[in-house]
Amino acid sequence: MALSPASGPKVRKPLGRPQTPEELAFYARNFFRLSVVAVVFFPPLGLAGLYFSKQTDEANQCSDWEDAYRNSNRTVWVDMFSILTGIGLIYLYVLFI
Fold first, then answer.
1. How far apart are the first and last CA of the chain?
2. Can you give the pLDDT at residue 7?
C-alpha cells in the first residue's frame, strides 16, 4: 500500500492574526502541571505527557481544535498511567524490598 503525499507529518501554520474571543474560549485544556507531576513519578511516560501537552498548546495557538482536543486527551491518559505506574513501583519497592 503506497502512502499518499498528504499522509506525512502534520505541519501547523500560525494564524498570522490575533485569535478572536470565541476562539480563545474554545481552547482545549493543557495539563502541563499534571505532566510535571507525572515526570516526577515515572519519567519515561511523564516525558511523553509533556510532549502531548506541548502539542496541545501548539494546536490551540493555531486554532487546530481537533488536534488540540485529541492531544489533550492523550496527555491526561498518559499522565495518569504514568502516575499510577510510579505509585505502583513505589508500593512494590516499599513492601518487598
1. 51
2. 63
The type of residue at 89 is: L
Q: Where are the domains of the chain?
A: 22-96
Exposed, middle or buried: residue 47 (CB in 10 Å: 0-12, 13-18, 19+)?
middle
Of 52, 46, 47, the C-alpha closest to 74 is: 52
CA within 13 Å, CB half, 47: 2
State the pTM of this model. Answer: 0.81
DSSP secondary structure code for residue 17 in this structure? S
Euclidean distance between CA atoms 79 and 94, whole angstroms: 22
- Supply the mean pLDDT for the chain: 88
Q: Is the CB of residue 53 less than 8 Å from the CB of residue 32?
A: yes
Residue 10 backbone phi and psi in degrees, to 5: -75, 130
